[in-house]
Amino acid sequence: MSITLLCLVKGNTLANAFPVDIEKDQLVGHLKKVIKAENPQTFANVDVKDIKLWKVEIGGDHLDDQLKNLKLNGSDELSAINEIGDYWTEKPPKKHIHVLVEPPVTTTASNEVLELREKLASLQALLNKSVHGTVRCCCESETNEELQVDREHRKNSMREMEKPPALENDGAVLNIINDSGKFSPRNDQDLRKILQLFVSNVNLKFTVLIETPSKPFNEWTFPKVCELYGLSDDPNPSIDVYPVFSCGSADLSSEQSKAVVKHLLAELKLRQKTTPLDMTYEATKSIYSYCYLASGVSFYDEKIKIIPEKLITGHNGQGNLDYAIECRSTNRVVGLVEVKRDDFKQGFAQATVQMESSLTCRKRKVNEIDDSYGLDKVWGIVTDAEKWYFMECMLDGEGKPSFKLSEPVIVVYKDENLQAKVEKVLGHIVWLLEEAQKPMEASQSGEGSREIKRSKSLSKIVGK
Q1: Which residues does the annotated region (Disordered) include (predicted)?
Q2: Average pLDDT, the chain
Q3: Which of 93, 126, 303, 414 has its CA 20 to 30 A from that of 231?
Q4: Residues 5-15: pLDDT tens digits?
Q5: Alpha-carbon distance 43 to 190, whole Å?
Q6: Is there a contact between 345 and 285 (Cβ–Cβ < 8 Å)?
């Protein structure tokens, strides 16, 4: 006697159910053969003996909901040596699922699993590099996987291919999202379990997020910074890796300049009396350094301001600057100051990442308004209030940073030559402030098409 059994592969919806006609005196093993023949793609490369069949009775309304929540613990697994009639002595009920078919987990969607392994290898390679922002990988069981990365990320990834992996394992976070929720594997074992869960549920559509948070500026070491920006691969590099920055000096011979110098000297002498320059305290050095900055900015106090502890976040670093020199009209950082107690290499490392971060942060914000606006330079100062180093960071046409470092200017506060050295430091600061304003002034004088383009964009920002 022949009966009709309505079968469904585990994980599929009711729309994929299929009928099988079979004699009651035939074995369950025969039923497996018929099911495989009815579904050649689903069971490609699957041995009949590895297919599991379960007797179920699922009927009524909302069958798909019942299938989602189905537990097989209390169901009968059909034994290959038994006859069909051993399980269905009477005619099976209509409009019910009678047999749930379970393919072997290890071979389910084998082609997709192979593709997933390839993509995971690619993701692991990305984890071993500096990855900025977020990578989204969408994997679907019915189509080839697509790695969807926005244009800016592709550009950054290509640049990173040319750099040593300075950010290797520096805090990358992996998150996986699908219809079931968000999963955050913290090791290889967790990742394996999550992928096995997806495969067992035939759920091969998910999103992978790889996030590499930028780390604090003060965690960067000088060798790591040299490696990151391609300055040197020496494990103990010297400061000679920087090209020399020929920092200009402003003319301080005017009456206004002489008055500013006189006031600065008076401020420094007052601090010597009240707060001696103690080599062990960075805070004391900051008090002295601020006098120079305030004196320099006083020439342009309507255009430039000093922002202590300004927060900057870039691709490679984030944190508060000791001092930011900021344009009042655009709020863009034109210069920054890193005050150190004694470790100048560490100071150069921090200032280098700070300058690059201030430029990339600035360009992101400006580009939202006008892509043609291309301010691509910032300067930095590293000092302990006695030694003064001046730095420059520029971005080329492809957004790659380059850096320069000046020879030091040394101020000895108990030296009879104090005024000359103070004037030299102040002259450099004022010159840098003048240079920072040139893009704005060039448009008014008509100098150069590139400068005019910048200033046109600047006027748009000011007008908003």
Answers
A1: 439-464
A2: 79
A3: 126
A4: 999 988 888 88
A5: 29
A6: no
**What are the beta bridge partners of residue 144?**
none
Question: Which strand (E) or helix (H) includes residue 173?
Answer: strand 173-178
Q: Would you state the torsion angle of the CA atoms of residues 452, 455, 460, 464, taken in this order, to the nearest 10 degrees?
A: -170
Q: How many CB atoms lie within 10 A of CB 237?
A: 17
CB count within 10 Å of CB 432 equals: 23
Contact 333, 324 (CB under 8 A): yes
| Cα gap 292→275, rounded to integer Å | 16
- Report the largest interatomic distance among the alpha carbons of the chain, rounded to a whole angstrom: 117
Closest CA to 32 of 92, 87, 100: 100
What is the distance between the alpha carbons of residues 379 and 393, in angstroms, rounded to a whole number? 6
pLDDT digits (tens, 9 = 90+) for 123-141: 666 555 444 444 444 433 3
Give the tokens for residue 75.
């169901």
What is the percentage of the chain residues whose pLDDT exceeds 90? 45
**What does the chain come to in residues?**
464
With a threshold of 0.70, does the pTM exceed it? no
Count the Cβ atoms, other than its own, within 10 Å of residue 144. Answer: 8
Indicate the fold that domain 2-105 takes in CATH.
Ubiquitin-like (UB roll) (3.10.20)
* Cα–Cα distance, 155 to 62 (Å, whole number): 49
Token pair 């062990």 in the structure block, residue: 280
User: Is 192 a residue whose pLDDT tops 70?
Assistant: yes
pLDDT digits (tens, 9 = 90+) for 310-354: 999 888 899 999 999 999 988 889 999 999 988 999 999 999 999
CA angle 21, 27, 31 (to 5 degrees): 40
State phi, psi for 193 to the nearest 5 degrees: -60, -40
- Supply the angle between the helices 418-445 and 449-463 in degrees, to the nearest 10: 90
Number of continuous H segments (helices) and E segments (strands) in the chain: 11, 20
CA-based nearest residue to 215, from 318, 328, 80: 318
Nearest to 135 by CA among 118, 121, 148: 148
Distance from chain centroid for Cα 413: 45
Structural domain boundaries in the chain: 2-105, 110-213, 218-463
The two structure tokens encoding residue 190: 């967790």
